[in-house]
Amino acid sequence: MLRSLVGSEMCIRDRLGLCASSKYLRSVRAYTMWNCAAVVTNFALKLRWERPLVCNSLAIFASYRTASVDAHEDLRRRAGLGPFWYFVGDNAVHLLPLLVLVRWLVKHEQFCRPQHGAFALLGQLFFAFSQGGQMDMGQIYVPHDVPFAWAAVGLGQLMAPSLVNNLIRRKYKQAAVTLLLVFSPCLLKVLGFRALRNRTSISPAELAEYDLDLPKGAIGATEQGRLCQACATRCCAECLARLGPLGHV
After folding, report:
1. pTM
2. Quick one: CA torsion of 222, 227, 229, 232, rounded to 10 degrees?
3. Would you give the DSSP letter of residue 203?
4. Is 132 helix (H, G, I), strand (E, B) or coil?
5. Backbone dihedral region of 244: left (phi > 0), alpha (psi from -120 to 50 degrees) or beta?
6. What is the C-alpha to C-alpha distance for residues 93 and 99, in angstroms, rounded to an integer?
7. Strands (E), the chain
8. DSSP class per residue in 102-127
């Protein structure tokens, strides 16, 4: 199952080389397509993966929301879409599968176990290491706050069974508390508790591929993926001259 879950993403984005030649397929690279593909495959072939997939879907939705607090514009530019269509694609790929799975499980009273979340978490870790060789997904998508994104992943995977089970039992207050806990990393970032990107630099080739708007007076492309602690923006020549390399994360 692990190979099935991650295989779709690898085919869609990289292995077939279609994204480079198609503007339409280029837009999917900013989204987490492999989970959406797994959900479609599950219902098409009646594989009965609904319970681990709902854990994975909640984790991906929460982590993508958390990463988007810092990297929303970078993700949108990577998709090559305008604000409206990026919003539509974001919710179609990340929110819709979650809603479909939750509704199906509640309707059929299919209770989830913590083991489903743990298994789905292993699948997501397998995907991360199979694609990038590390938990830092900044080189696959765009630089973002990796620790908080993975915190949302862990909470989403492990708390999804509690969410589904409470909805089946019609304990809506407990379900709301569970959702609040899952999205706590995102809420903390929205409230300004943490505004950092990861430590991974973007290569010049990737910068050209992302088509990001580089700041005026920007230094070398290898520094563009880093966040300046002084001005809370991408590294700039002025801050570098004043603080030196140690002034940047």
Report:
1. 0.72
2. 130
3. P
4. helix
5. left
6. 11
7. none
8. HHHHHHTT----HHHHHHHHHHHHHH
Give me the residue label for tokens 């050209």. Answer: 208
Name the residue with tokens 């799975």: 101
- Token representation of residue 39: 């959900």
3-class state of residue 234 by DSSP: strand
- Are 31 and 88 in contact by the 8 Å Cβ rule? The answer is no
> What token pair was written down for 41?
């495959």
Give 201's DSSP letter. Answer: P
User: pLDDT digit string (tens) for 186-238?
Assistant: 999 998 887 654 444 444 454 444 444 444 444 333 344 444 444 444 445 55
Helices 83-90 and 50-79: crossing angle in degrees, nearest 10, is: 170
Q: What is the pLDDT of residues 32-91, one digit of tens each?
A: 888 999 999 999 999 999 999 999 999 999 999 999 998 888 888 888 889 999 999 999
Q: What is the dihedral of CA 218, 220, 226, 227, to 10 degrees?
A: -30
| Separation of alpha carbons 101 and 54, rounded Å | 6
- Report which DSSP code applies to 1: -
